């Protein structure tokens, strides 16, 4: 289990995979009082990825990712288009944008999981929150990462 302080890349990936879930995205868009949604997200990042975070930590990271996205977007716009990608302004920019704009996430969590972990699998390694090697099992509705 991944317990320590801070949000490592692996922990952010776990949160992004859960946030990408269609039901979570829709509920976050349509609900103002969203404590229960973040409680569910905290349960899922623990159950599926072994990341232990409470609902407040998940909500804070979610808000920070959205804020960083907006700042990166405006910094890029101010700098004009052309050289360089938005990735230089914010890690996981493309993933957050996909979630916020519902782009390419018809399969929700499974699609996000492919984005975040496939490159690492092709390279022969996978970073997981616990630092173990991961085995990915997918179903039609979602993708689970089982750590060995």
Automatic annotation (TrEMBL):
Pfam families: Myb_DNA-bind_4
Protein name: Myb/SANT-like DNA-binding domain-containing protein
PANTHER family associated with the record: HEAT SHOCK 70 KDA PROTEIN 14 (PTHR47595), MYB_SANT-LIKE DNA-BINDING DOMAIN-CONTAINING PROTEIN (PTHR47595:SF1)
Alphabetized InterPro entries for the sequence: Myb_DNA-bind_4
Organism of provenance: Neolamprologus brichardi (Fairy cichlid)
Residue ranges that the Swiss-Prot or TrEMBL entry lists as coiled coil: none
Domain Myb/SANT-like DNA-binding, chain residue ranges per copy: 6-98
């Amino acid at each position: 289990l991944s317990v320590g302080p801070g949000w490592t890349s692996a922990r952010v990936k776990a949160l992004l995979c859960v946030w990408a879930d269609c039901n979570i995205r829709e509920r976050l868009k349509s609900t103002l009082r969203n404590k229960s949604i973040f409680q569910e997200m905290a349960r899922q990042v623990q159950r599926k990825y072994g990341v232990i975070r409470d609902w407040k930590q998940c909500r804070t990271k979610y808000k920070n990712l959205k804020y960083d996205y907006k700042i990166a977007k405006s910094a890029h716009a101010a700098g004009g288009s052309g050289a360089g990608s938005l990735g230089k302004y914010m890690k996981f920019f493309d993933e957050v944008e996909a979630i916020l704009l519902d782009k390419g996430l018809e399969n929700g969590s499974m699609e996000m999981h492919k984005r975040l972990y496939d490159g690492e699998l092709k390279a022969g390694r996978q970073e997981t929150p616990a630092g173990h090697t991961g085995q990915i099992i997918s179903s039609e509705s979602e993708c689970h990462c089982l750590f060995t």
